[in-house]
Specification:
Elements (H helix, E strand, L loop, with lengths): L1 E5 L3 H13 L3 E6 L2 H11 L3 E5 L9 H12 L5 E5 L4 H7 L7 E5 L6 H12 L3 E3 L1 H10 L8 H11 L4 H8 L3 H15 L7 H12 L2
Parallel strand pairs: 1-2, 1-3, 3-4, 4-5, 5-6
Length: 211
């Protein structure tokens, strides 16, 4: 699996490269400046890109803007964005094209190698991976969720984090049938269409929560 990394911090950049190489990813390019990201992505067309949100020269949102621009030219290009802090605005922008193959992960999560590698694989496979802290922030800000029960909120949080029905059932110690029922209730109460497509349902929920 071919990967492009964009990260300006030398130690983290080296760590990401070593971790991915150890799990049989092929790191085909590594860049450390915002202006280099888009041309590198368009030239390499990787299976997944791991990008820092803030890169030189301005350290604002160069990585994010490059990711959005690349996905416009290569629809569905899988992008996993890394950020130092919880910034829901960036999560919303990344998800704005309503396609899967995107992720938003706090840099602290990289220290959990298994979680990081799983996130890269999930995004590369066309899935959506949102950091639990970002999901929690979106849930806290959304007053329309008052219509949901406590259990439905719990299930929604797990859905938005990209977990399958089976994974949600295992984590909450309930049956998959119960999870399906909760999900149907959630979409009905929020006025969202029920879908068997996990990526579409996560994107729809997050878009609704951040609207």
């Amino acid at each position: 699996m071919r990967v492009v990394i964009a990260e300006d911090h030398a130690l983290l950049r080296d760590g990401l490269t070593r971790i991915l190489a150890a799990f049989d990813f092929d790191v085909v390019a590594v860049v450390d400046r915002g202006p280099d990201v888009l041309p590198t992505l368009l030239e390499c067309k990787p299976d997944v890109a791991v990008l820092d949100v803030r890169l030189p020269p301005t350290f604002t949102d160069e990585g994010l803007q490059a990711a959005i621009a690349a996905r416009r030219q290569v629809p569905g290009l899988p992008i996993l964005v890394l950020s130092q802090h919880v910034e829901p605005l960036y999560a919303r922008e990344l998800l704005s094209d309503r396609r899967g193959g995107v992720g938003y992960l706090l840099k602290d999560r990289v220290s959990d190698v298994a979680q990081f590698v799983d996130a890269v694989r999930q995004v590369a496979g066309g899935g959506t991976m949102m950091d639990p802290e970002v999901v929690a922030r979106l849930l806290e800000r959304s007053r329309p969720l008052d219509v949901l029960t406590a259990r439905e909120r719990e299930v929604l949080g797990e859905m938005a984090a990209g977990r399958s029905n089976a994974a949600i059932a295992a984590k909450l110690y309930v049956t998959e049938k119960a999870v399906s029922k909760h999900i149907n209730n959630i979409f009905t109460k929020l006025g969202l269409p029920v879908s068997e497509d996990d990526n579409r349902r996560v994107l729809a929920v997050l878009a609704y929560l951040d609207s």
